[in-house]
Structure formats: structure tokens, C-alpha cells
Amino acid sequence: MAARKLTPTEVLAQPLELPCGLVLPNRLVKCPMQETLAVAPFFDPPIEKFQNLYGQWAEANYGLIITGQVQIDIRFLSIAGDVVCHPDSLEPPHIESWKRWAEIAQSKGTPCIVQLAHPGRMSPAGAGQRPADMPTLCPSSVPVQVGDKWLDKLAVSKMLGTPKAMDLADIDGAVEDWKRGARVAKIAGFKGIQLHGAHGFLLSQFLSPHTNRRTDDYGGNPEGRLKLLKRLVTEIREECPPPFCLSVKLNSGDYMAEGGLSQDEALEQVRWLVTCGMVDFVEISGGNAEQKTSGLHNSFGKQTISQAPQIRESTRIREAYYTEFAERVTQLPNKKCPIQLSGGFRSRNGMADAITSSACDLIGLGRTAVLEPDIPKRLLLNHALSDEEALARPHIVKGQWLSNMIPIKVVGSSLPIQLFYFNMRRLGNGLQPDPDKSILGMIWSSVVETFHSGLSVAVHRVLETCGLSKAQKVD
Ligand SMILES: Cc1cc2nc3c(=O)[nH]c(=O)nc-3n(C[C@H](O)[C@H](O)[C@H](O)COP(=O)(O)O)c2cc1C
């Protein structure tokens, strides 16, 4: 008798054992998304806020939670508020915050891994703790270009400047920082790490011929451009063997108009990762902060769907952006690890179809996990809701006209993503998401917040000056 075909809910609810032995209870992965909640000077995991934010994701029944990117070098953040793994992170009191974070995120049985990153030349001045005259780092000294007008060039040169080409000591230093990140994650109790090799950050700067014009062993040809990633995978594996999970996030290309990373070369890079026997899963995503058609942090495609697509025998449901590339990866011979596909998923049918048609094994949920943090339990894995009802809300950001009106592209194009940072901060403050907030509304809220905090600082100073500060009043 032929086996019964699984329903879309059953397809998503299937557990998956990774090569390291870690068992994921289902196929839905909360994507890495930087929370922008950590504060200077140490940028440790902010426990109260993470209790609220990761507590919600922990309750939601994901198969895996990947943290937002954690920077490995306190001098180079990708945005203010990134968590940082610094040289003191292994010592008390810092390691206690890391342990608590691992506990909160995994409190209901979902495993959690930490994404480790270095932004390279995409580190804006003022976001990290580096002297004003210290340049960003890059495999070669290739400045970022977002927009063609003189105002664009001025803004980018003020924010990012011209990067320094990394020398071998810089590369060795970064490798040590990444290894320390893995060590901290392991000691804290996380189940593994993911190396961020996508979206135009340092590792993808090494992988792309546009930013890697080196002539030494770390560049020169496709093999050389892959050398840093190979070194990291090998050395981290040596130090953190299974059952510790080691994952890599990669792009399906870097979307540069000329001289960038082609899909064919990206496929060769993935080929090594999926056949080397040291990596537990590869996440495939897309986008590049510098790409000509979009702006900083834009890793999203454009299409949107208004209702859940129907499952039919003959047609493929392609709501995800990078399905074609994922299919090329899954067809690679001798593939030893599963593939996570991220970008654009909204319907239960579309997700299940991507798995049953072998485009991928795991489904990454980014913006949806912010706007509807409980979506696996409430909707996608809920048998009581029909496949037609199982559709996440659209990711439309209201007031995008404002971002188009701003004459500086690097500023204008990074406005829509603020909705998701804004909502992660709301979740961190114990509030529900507000998906309908417009760009103008967010700007107004931050003006009011700044005014309030400025006012309270001013009132506090006046009270202090009058000898009436809180501590003295209690006395
Ligand atoms: C607010 C926000 C922050 C993000 N931060 C990260 C990050 O830290 N690391 C990363 O690899 N991707 C990051 N991404 C990209 C997501 O992981 C994911 O690849 C992307 O959002 C596409 O998935 P989606 O269509 O489900 O949103 C971020 C996306 C958003 C919206």
C-alpha cells in the first residue's frame, strides 16, 4: 500500500536530525536578526529585554532559533545595539549574561545557535568602539558605493570611509575573535554557531571578486577567496566537535552589476561547504547592502502574495526569493548536510512545497518572526487552521514614499527595515508588535522618546544640582 501523502502541516512538523546529532523538532527556523538592544560599553546580551524577546520566540515552537548577529570585534559593529563577544565575555559577570540568554532562548526545548559576524567595510562610524580615525577593514581597499549623486558619496564617505586592506595579522586576529565567539557560545550553553557569510559583510567581502582583489593566498582566484571561510570552518570544528552545531549563511550571489560574485562561483563555494563533512547546515539567502537596486540591509525581494497559494500536483509554488539557487545546491552530488532557505516565505503551502519538492529542508522566517513571533504555534503548525488560512501577514511597510523622497540613498533606503528593528525593540520592552506603524510614525516615536529621555536627564540633573536626586531623597 502506498504511503499516505503528508499534509503541509505534517511536512513542516517533521523533525530533522543534523549531521552533528542535534535534533530539530520541526522545519521552521527563526532567522538571525540583529536586535539592536545591547548597550555600550560592553554590548553584552541585555537580559531583561532578551527575556521578553527570546522568551516569546522560545514559547512559539520553532524548530531552531538563530540569534541576531553577534559581532566578534567591539571596534566594528554593523549597527548600534549589536551584541558583542569581546575578550572579557568569558569572565564574570559577562559570561553570566550569555548563560542566561542561552537558558531563556532554549527554555521550552527549541535549540538555539549564535550567529557570529564581522561587518568589515560595512561598519558605520560611531556604531562600535573604535577611534574616529580608524578605518573599517576589508580584504581590499574598496569603498562602499550606495547611490551615484554627490550627496550619496559624501554620506557614505562620512559614515563608512575608505576601508583598509587587511594584512595577515588582521586576518589572524579576526580568526581568533571568531574562535572566541564559538567558545563563548559553547560555554554559555548554546547548541552551536552560525558564521555570517552573506549580505556583504566581511566573510562575503572575502568571497566576492568585487571586494577581494588580493593577490596573496586569501584571494587571486575562487579557491583563494574561499580560504578564510575554509580556515574558520576547519579551526572551529577542531575546537568544537559534534554535537556542537556549525552552520554557515551564504548568499546566492552578491548582486553587483559588474565584477561581483556570480551564481556559478557562489555554487562552487556552497559545494565545498555542503560536501566537506564539517558543516551541519547551510542557510541560503540573498541581497547585498551595496547592490545598486536597493540599499543598506536590503536582503529582501519585492514580490508579495495576497492569499495562500493552492497546492497542485503539477505546479511549483515559488513564493521564496532564492528557490532556484537552493534547487541547484540540493542537486549537488555528495551533499552531506541540509539546506535552509530564507527570504519571502509567508504561506504554509509555499513552505511545505519548498520542502516536498526538495528545494530545501528548513524554512527560514525573518520579518514574519518579528511581526508575528508566535506564528509556528498559532498558525503554521496548528492543525485546526486550514492551509488557506495559514498565511503570514504581508511585510509591507507604510509610508515608503518618505524613504524615496530622501535625497541620500544610504539613509532613505534603510528606512523600511526600521519597522522590524522598531518592533523587536517593542518586543524587548514587553510590548506587542505594531506592524502597522508607518515610517513617519516611527520617526515621531523616536523624537518623543529622545525628548522624554532628554527631559528626564535634564530634570535629574536639576534635582541633583539642588541636592534632591533620587538617592538623596530616599535617605
Ligand atoms: C530587522 C532585520 C535584521 C536582520 N538581521 C540579520 C542578521 O543579523 N543576520 C543575518 O544573517 N540576516 C539578518 N537579516 C536577514 C534575515 O535573516 C532574512 O535572511 C531576511 O529577512 C529574509 O527573510 P524574510 O523574507 O523571512 O524576512 C535581518 C533582517 C531583518 C528584517
UniProtKB/TrEMBL annotation:
- Record organism: Coleophoma cylindrospora
What protein does this entry describe?
FMN-linked oxidoreductase-1
Gene3D superfamilies the record matches: Aldolase class I
Pinpoint the NADH:flavin oxidoreductase/NADH oxidase N-terminal domain residues: 22-379
Give the matching InterPro entries.
Answer: Aldolase_TIM, NADH_flavin_oxidoreductase, OxRdtase_FMN_N
| Ranges in coiled-coil conformation | none
Which GO molecular function annotation, any one, does this entry have?
FMN binding
- PANTHER family attached here? BINDING OXIDOREDUCTASE, PUTATIVE (AFU_ORTHOLOGUE AFUA_2G08260)-RELATED (PTHR43656)
> Which family is it part of?
Belongs to the NADH:flavin oxidoreductase/NADH oxidase family.
Please, which domain of life does this record's source organism belong to? Eukaryota
Q: What is the lineage of its organism?
A: Eukaryota, Fungi, Dikarya, Ascomycota, Pezizomycotina
Q: Which UniProt keywords apply?
A: Flavoprotein, FMN, Oxidoreductase
